[in-house]
Amino acid sequence: MAENSEFQHLSPEAQKHAQEPNETRIRRIRSDRWISFPHAETVLAKMNQMIAQPQKARMPCLLVTASSGMGKTMIATRFLRDHPPTLDEKTGVASTPAVVIQMTDVTSPRRLYTRLLDALGAPMGKHQQL
Length: 130
What we know:
Blueprint: H1 12-18, H2 22-30, H3 38-51, H4 72-82, E1 86-87, E2 94-95, H5 109-120
Antiparallel strand pairs: 1-2
């Protein structure tokens, strides 16, 4: 791709994106971006440390709380992207290394259980549904 003098101030990768069709550039602009910050890196490091532990009966868990808009969902999304579920083709056994659920301020043990089963893709009986 020939260099466009209009975009010389941009990095080579950004120059390439700047020359894309409008629809592609708009989609790229509107998509989520990971912007690292110290607290997020601390949480991700803790989560990576936890997932690296050998399996045992009671695996550790982590509850992340913060005000709305502070990056909790982006941290979870990034972690899940780095640790996706896998499927053993030979046995048909799925492995889910991490489960993330989001809860509202008002919750109950029953709603927590239902959200957890849903996140795991487990079938719910009619008595378990809300």
